[in-house]
Design a protein that fits this description.
Largest sheet: 8 strands, mixed
CATH superfamily of the largest domain: NAD(P)-binding Rossmann-like Domain
Radius of gyration: 21 Å
Shape: globular
Helix content: 25-40%
Distance between the termini: 21 Å
Order of helices and strands: EHEHEHEHEHEHEHEHEHEHEEEHHHEEHH
Number of domains: 2
Structural class: alpha/beta
Strand order of the largest sheet: 3-2-1-4-5-6-14-15
Length: 370
């Protein structure tokens, strides 16, 4: 198969769809690789590294799309990229379609087949291609919260871990999944007081054992969130419903009972955000203030550490990408987890949570492959 890797063009996005090491694996499997010039610059991989791995270097994105059957990216296609997609294209990348009707419309009209990293599942129902970026984003969330808490950034002027004789900051983590666990791990490591809220009692038990009592765990109810948010210095939004829009757990009214200068980091912003006042921001302007509360809602947080993120992502996506490149239809029919990643197929939405979130018709993915 002819596989194309365009340079990411979303603002402040420096990751790359394939590292040189992954390119070498595709070439060894008999595929031809076309990589846009400069695509790997953000991770320190120049064109010569991709040539050495067996790729051909394309002068621009138009050439990559025009001469490839499968497009491997990191972030959702931007409008100019969607216009380059054709019915023969297989797109393999993060999509986050539920809160993005315009992107969904564009992909439907393109006629392409689009597989979303974030809805591929494994045999345990987990999300193996979302997990590495969730790990990165969870850890970055605490770094972001610590920076935003500084007075010069509009925060309360607190050090997350405090110092001897001065209380540490209180961190509330909404969601005990991969993002929430890694955020809590970082916060605990810095000495903050951490509370994790989740709706799964088995998960809360696991977290209690994992942290050996160093974090408080609470069952998620509106009352519990309202009670905890009053005392919180930083709130990390880490909830996820695979494929669907994130639930709004913090309302604007709740901001009025929070401490002035408290920080909210919405890691769920790619899925619409879990705070009512969330609006996507960029690394160039990551924060804004509503009712005295600092909001950090960067939609591509892992893009800040592109080298770590790209290699971690490739470690997870490589085997799935190789299977798709060998025979996409057979690969999806053989692997129900990979089939779950199919979001768009020849003008139809094939992921039910996406269809439900957008109020559109749903076509079962297996039926779409017929």
């Amino acid at each position: 198969m002819r596989i194309g890797v365009p340079k990411e063009i979303k603002p402040q996005e420096f990751r790359v769809g394939l590292t040189p090491g992954s390119v070498r694996e595709y070439v060894a499997a008999g595929h031809s690789l076309l990589v846009e010039t400069g695509a790997g610059a953000g991770i320190g991989a120049d064109d010569s590294a991709y040539k050495a791995a067996g790729a051909e270097i394309a002068p621009n994105a138009d050439s990559v799309f025009a001469n490839s059957d499968m497009i491997i990216k990191v972030k959702e296609p931007q409008p100019v990229e969607i216009k380059r997609l054709k019915p023969q294209h297989l797109l393999f990348t993060y999509l986050h379609l539920a809160p993005d009707p315009e992107q969904t419309k564009g992909l439907i009209e393109s006629g392409c087949t689009a597989i979303a990293y974030e809805t591929v599942t494994d045999d345990r129902g987990a999300l193996p291609l979302l997990a590495p970026m969730s790990e990165v984003a969870g850890r970055l969330a605490i770094q972001a919260a610590g920076t935003a808490l500084q007075k010069l950034n509009g925060g309360r002027g607190l050090l997350l871990g405090g110092v001897p004789g001065v209380a540490a900051a209180r961190v509330l983590v909404l969601g005990g999944g991969v993002v929430g666990t890694h955020a809590a791990r970082m916060a605990v490591g810095l000495g903050a007081e951490v509370t994790i809220v989740d709706r799964s009692l088995p998960r809360l038990r696991e977290l209690d054992e994992l942290f050996n009592g160093r974090v408080r765990t609470l069952y998620s109810t509106s009352h519990a969130i309202e009670t905890e948010i009053v005392a919180a210095d930083a709130v990390i939004g880490a909830v996820l419903i695979p494929g669907a829009s994130a639930p709004r757990l913090v309302t604007r009214a709740m901001l009025k009972i929070m401490k002035p200068g408290a920080v909210m980091v919405d890691v769920a912003i790619d899925q619409g955000g879990c705070f009512e006042t969330s609006q996507a921001t960029t690394h160039a302007e990551p924060t804004y203030i509503v009712d005295g509360i600092v909001h950090y809602c960067v939609a591509n947080m892992p893009g800040a550490v592109p080298s770590t993120s790209s290699y971690a992502l490739n470690n997870a996506t490589l085997r799935y990408g190789l299977a798709l490149a060998a025979d996409p239809i057979a690969a999806m029919k053989r692997d129900p987890g990979l089939l779950a990643g199919l979001n768009i197929r020849h003008g139809k939405i094939t992921n039910k949570p996406v269809a439900d979130s957008l109020g559109k018709a749903f076509v079962p993915p297996l039926e779409s492959l017929a």
